[in-house]
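User: Teach me something about this protein's shape.
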Amino acid sequence: MRLFADYHTHTTYSDGRGTLAENIEAAAARGLQAVGITDHGPKGIGIGVAAPETFLAIKEEAARIALRFPEMRVLVGAETSVISRDGRLDLPEAVINKLDLLIAGLHPYYIPEKLGDAVHYTLPNLFVRARRSVWEKMRNTNTKALIGSISSYDVDIISHPNLMMPVDADELASVCAGCETALEVNTGHNYNKEEIVRAAARKGAMLAINSDAHYPHRVGDLASGAELVERLRFPAEMVINASLN
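Assistant: First, the predicted structure itself:
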């Protein structure tokens, strides 16, 4: 199995440490055929872009840089945050519709739109490890929120499911399978990725193996994800950025 793309990287437009050009150059140096520039949505506290329109500026800059790399496909997307119990994302549809790639994920620190979501969704997730009863409740709430995102938006990838905020992997994978949304094996974070791979295999969901790179030298660092899916004998044809050659 060969991984030809890294669809999840961050730049200085959000909380990354490399410029757009540096990430694209790093992807080319790794021999990738495609790279996704997917900075955080604007509601992420301390990590998000300045405004929704920032993604349009990123697209313009990326198009200019991509001319220097004719063999590289440069995709501009967003890693959006789920900001409500019903799965609203922190970007307006008018901007989402202009992106090449939409990633949705659970993040603990963001600006909720409604007081009810702050009280019943945002704050409980900050204390999810304090009590088993809270963990069980928020596992259900988080799963339903992600399912709401998948149902309401054309989500390509769910980023790092089960990182910090628990989900029901089987229930999520079942919905992803029906909507052709990939679950991510994120090589940049430590969490129970094996559970995600096994759930995807049971339910017929696709996977994406991404770096979530916040530094240029991490772009395309995907080997640990490839090793995991190969060890678990997950079919390579179900990995959206893998080829059999």
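Now, about its shape. The first helix runs from residue 20 to 29. Helices lie at 20-29, 54-66, 93-96, 115-126, 132-152, 169-179, 193-203, 223-231. If you'd like, I can walk through any region in more detail.
User: That's plenty for now, thanks!
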